Amino acid sequence: MVPAPLPGPIAVGFLILAMTRSAETAPPAKADLVLRGGIVHTMDPRRPRAQAVAVAGASIAAVGTDAEVAALVGPATRVIDLRGRTLVPGFADSHAHVLGDRRTRGGLGFVRLGLDLSETRSWSEVLERVAEVARARPAGEWVLGRGWHEGKWAAPAVPSVRGFPTHAALSALTPDHPVVLERADGHAVLVNARAMSVARLTAATEPPPGGEIVQDGEGRPTGILVDRAADLVQPPPAGPDEMRRALDAAMDECLRHGVTSVTDAGADLETIALYREYARAGKLRVRLYVMAGGAEVMRALARPEVGLGDGFLTLRAVKLYADGALGSRGAALLEPYEDDPGNRGLVLTPPETILETARLALRTGFQVATHAIGDRANRFVLDAYARALGERPDVKDARFRIEHAQVIDEADIPRFARLGVIASMQACHCPSDRPWAPRRIGMARVEEGAYAWRKLLASGARLINGTDAPVERLSAVENFFASVARRDPSGRPPGGFDPGERMTREEALRSYTLDAAFGAFAEDRLGSIEPGKRADLVVLSRDVMGVPEDELLATVVEATIVDGRVVYEAR
């Protein structure tokens, strides 16, 4: 239903005026694009609802009723009749992996082009998919895939060690091809015998610090390499042409889901060079806020670069890894895993290194964003941040982030707000991981501080949202549903996991728009629909702020607009 006209005159001061006349006498310039007859959720507290939006060039010129915006329609204006559909700010995914590791090709773009195992529901299905790819390739060529997750299989792999499949069946099917299959979380790989042979990995190989070579009962490697141990197997990296195809595929995927901005959670110098190339050529169709992949990359960049390519590329953050992932038992815990006594996870970056990096970032203007999943990792990252920020009281707006913040000790929850640390969380991880998380850490720890959105928000922390794609699907609609329902895309479980931790719809949309822009220092130009901001907009088939919860997943992204240009339309 189209809302009733809203009272109040349009703010003429925000209209684009003819440059050669005074503001008192000049008529408003005509808009290039007008969207009218809809339900507009602006995220602007001064005018949260509207019917119509006018766009001039790359910016929003006016927001108001159909009648108020009608004056800006000229002969060359493209007019889109929303017919009661919904318009929201462009979705900003605050944590995704656009290209990821160029060796394993585990980023969003590479997965779209390659062997995607995310929908496999059994070990036998994984084997079939890999064998099919191997048969079509010459002997010796690497086979790379991503997305398997043993926790989502209908039956466990046989044989297995600690729940993970072993390489035996895979090696038998692919004797002539080195195979590397990245787990869905990106924190473990399964490699076959040929890959281990190429890497000279044997029972005598020692794992690097922050890594684990999973062994069977006789001390032989099973093919599972956790976190830093995955670096022992080195497929040849993707070349420039393959990287360009992957970047194009990733942008297509973003626009299809209404994602107009992405925080790329860790890029190497070669990937950053590609982003700069695209920015210079005007080929970026999605805004990228890029984290340098580690302290060395940050040092090589030397200083932040903001707004390259007319606002499409910003290099301003550094990504660190405090620990691994919960599923592969690499998350650093205060107490051992319930299903692996004696194991408290892995520390990938020592606390003192995080502290030194934070100090350098504060000197040079970079934002620090540290992956921390386990409660022990979250604690020592907060400790390092507190010390670094305490040493620099002159820095008033560092906006340090913790990525994932998945399991937090209750005593540490209030520290996010006190320190001004942003909780960069992925709502979709809750329904995806929650069915098996109690097996890893026990129900008490789950209920105390796992996926604790409400506790964090109630403490005053700022929470921003994302998907961790390709770990989870990039779908903004599915992630919004997870935020407010804490249910998976099939609707399970009824009532949601730990429903007291759900976000309101207003909080969920803010976490994906205005607060997400804040997480990337962009709230002055992105994240809400108000005059003067860049025209990044999404047309949705349903009103996600009003339809019944069970109808949310039927919402379709019908159009995506970036910088005032319609760059995607559903067919």
Q: How is this structure best described in words?
A:
The protein is α/β, with parallel strands linked by helices. The protein has three domains: 1-84 and 529-571, Urease, subunit C, domain 1 (Roll), CATH 2.30.40.10; 92-97 and 240-521, TIM Barrel; 116-232, Diaminopimelate Epimerase, Chain A, domain 1 (Roll). The chain has 18 helices and 27 strands. The strands form five sheets. Strands 8-17-18-20-21-22-23-24 form an eight-stranded parallel β-sheet. It has a six-stranded mixed β-sheet with strand order 3-2-7-25-26-27, with no helix packed on it. A six-stranded mixed β-sheet has the order 9-10-13-14-16-15. β2 and β3 form a beta hairpin. Residues 1-27 have low confidence and may be disordered.
